[in-house]
Amino acid sequence: MKPRMSMITLGVTNLERSIEFYKALGFPRRGDHEDVAFFELNGTWLGLYGREALAEDAEVSADGSGYNSFTISHNVPSEAEVAQAIEHAVSIGGKLVKPAQKAFWGGYSGYFSDPDGHLWEVAYNPFTWIGPEDN
């Protein structure tokens, strides 16, 4: 897995309030979606998504025992690389949370957690590349 962070997605309790907060900080918003917001940062993106919906996507409990209301996303250029990255993480001590599979939003993704339980989503987005360009 190449060392990069494509997106940090925060689970929020009030999406509109959070959007206004990050806009007020001066973060440039990208796209206009109803149930998710994206802000382009320098080399990575910040995503805002409903806390309950984010937990549901990762198939964990929203009560805080399964995750801390955010995931770190690592985008890759193919579906095969999603599975490869997750398998590698599990092979070095990560825990499989959600196997790589077709995602409801049209891409392909899965989740693993690091040894401390921090959630990582590995995703292939067929619509746009999110993250820094590979060297």
Automatic annotation (TrEMBL):
PROSITE patterns: VOC. InterPro entries: Glyas_Bleomycin-R_OHBP_Dase, Glyas_Fos-R_dOase_dom, VOC_core. Pfam families: Glyoxalase. The lineage of its organism: Bacteria, Pseudomonadati, Pseudomonadota, Gammaproteobacteria, Oceanospirillales. This is VOC family protein. Residues 4-125 form the VOC domain.
